[in-house]
Design goal:
The chain is α/β, with parallel strands linked by helices. The protein has a single domain, classed as Rossmann fold, CATH 3.40.50. The chain is about 35% helix and about 25% strand. The chain has nine helices and ten strands. The chain has a six-stranded mixed beta sheet with strand order 6-7-8-3-9-10. Strands 2-1-4-5 form a four-stranded antiparallel beta sheet, with no helix packed on it. β9 and β10 form a beta hairpin. α3 crosses α4, α4 packs across α5 and α5 runs parallel beside α6. The two termini are about 35 Å apart.
Length: about 240
């Protein structure tokens, strides 16, 4: 469904992505991990046009990303869940979820509202449907953000460190929703340091360092601490799994 072919990107003279290639099949869950500043978030943001790239090609469900593509339309098909939720503070949970379907997909307001409530029920938040973001916990806001992405009927969802801004006790409630989505067959690319989630849900794990893909392998192979593993990956896992 998603093909990232030899993508390279620069910010001025600084190269942030170096010849990266990834394939993601329909229904596959791919976890992207690596040290801070390695290019993880930049890589997934190229998939829906939130970041440009200077070399290579990306194909999403048969459509090549180039300057002529309708990026707003692409973003209705490839959802995005951000680290900081990015909810509109002046809109209720329901209104945050219905805005996209009404404005971008021209859906009937009543139908969009009905679907929003069904999605809020799905993420365990129907009783909070009329609350504003400031009245919700971080974990609740992130679940609203996931419901908002689902409201657009996406073919895939990108998650950019969705739990890193949450207090530890709120992480599980968000990961549980993401696990349910994965079990239902949603195509997902997830930038995260939650290795427990990767072990439980991922089909593959990609490790990025210095803008390059160091390893792309099934999760069982990624967590196998054999001698053949790249030293950089073993060091990363030794640090992150010790916490």
């Amino acid at each position: 469904m998603i093909e990232i072919n030899n993508i390279s990107k620069w910010y001025g003279k600084y190269q942030v992505l170096n010849d990266c290639s990834v394939r993601v099949a329909k229904g596959e869950v791919v976890v992207v991990c690596g040290p801070s500043g390695s290019g993880k978030s930049t890589l997934i943001k190229t998939v829906n046009g939130l970041e440009s790239f200077q070399q290579g090609d990306i194909v999403v469900d048969g459509t090549h990303l180039n300057d002529a593509i309708d990026f707003p339309k692409l973003r209705t098909r490839v959802g995005m869940v951000f680290q900081k939720f990015e909810l509109f503070p002046h809109l209720t949970a329901t209104e945050n979820i219905t805005l996209g379907p009404i404005k971008a997909l021209s859906r009937d307001k009543a139908a969009a509202r009905e679907k929003a409530h069904a999605l809020l029920r799905r993420v365990g938040l129907l009783e909070h449907k009329d609350k504003y973001p400031a009245q919700l916990s971080g974990g609740q806001q992130q679940r609203v953000a996931i419901a908002r992405a689902l409201a657009m009927d996406p073919i895939a969802i990108l998650f950019d460190e969705p739990t890193s801004a949450l207090d530890p006790e709120m992480v599980t409630e968000v990961l549980d929703v993401m696990t349910d989505l994965a079990n239902e067959g949603m195509t997902m690319i997830v930038v995260t340091h939650e290795m427990g989630f990767a072990r439980r849900v991922a089909d593959r794990v990609i490790f990025i360092d210095g803008g390059s893909i160091v390893e792309d392998c099934p999760k069982e192979e990624f967590f196998d601490n054999s001698e053949r593993r790249p030293d950089r990956v073993k060091y990363f896992l030794s640090k992150i799994l010790s916490h």
